[in-house]
Amino acid sequence: MSSRSPILAAFLAFLFAFSSCAAGPAPVYGFKVVHTYPHSPSAYCQGLLVHDGKFYESTGRYGTSSLRRVEIETGKVEKRKDLPPTIFAEGLAWFGDELFQLTWKSGKAHVFDPRTFRVTRNLAYEGEGWGLTTDGKHLVMSDGSSTITFRDPETFEVVRKIEVMADETPIDQLNELEWIDGEIWANIWKRDFLVRIDPKDGKVVGWVNLTGIFDNSKIHDPDAVLNGIAYDPETKRIFVTGKLWPAVFEIELTDPE
Prior knowledge:
Strand content: over 45%
Mean pLDDT: 92
Shape: globular
Number of helices: 1
Oligomer: single chain
Number of strands: 22
Structural class: mainly beta
Order of helices and strands: HEEEEEEEEEEEEEEEEEEEEEE
Distance between the termini: 16 Å
CATH class: Mainly Beta
Largest sheet: 8 strands, mixed
Number of domains: 1
Low-confidence stretches: 1-11, 15-23
CATH architecture: 6 Propeller
């Protein structure tokens, strides 16, 4: 399955309306679905990653937030920890021997033992938590703005930050994050595009147009949008899903439009 969207030109025209960069906008890649895997339709995906051939997923909303280990091929939830109803879970990252899970408005990251799902410590931060990944040295976090912060995994203190820019236009609403071959890939809240970001300076180096990958109108929930990127560096496989979607899609990129 491949996707080309007639609304793409209009969307990119908006993004680059104030750009004066002679090099032009970053390339926009299409996609091909390689395989479709089951995904719990009750899972409000806020974070997704692959480790040792398994999905680890953070699900959100008050009253349904959880941490899960999921079998990729079947969608079976092998292990699950439900969080208190006062917690709205967000992004998820594996660093060292620990799982880090953000919360939306609690100002706290929960750190889990990935074998037992026991909380081993909590780390405080200011503002909202949205997406989380790692570059191997730091935890990399979004907060719904155009800013991405790099944080010390021991203290969660900000080490540095970048502003994500498409030429001269800030790209905000950055949500779920994934580190893929030296780039940060990000969902944009309520957009069917992924943005590829240079972690050195925040420059947008590419887009992935996922329009048409799933008809979320069938779910009858306005928040059932694209959110969730996972990458398996051992197999080079890329996976995407959405909030309350019944499927995870393994994709390959097609040539830029």
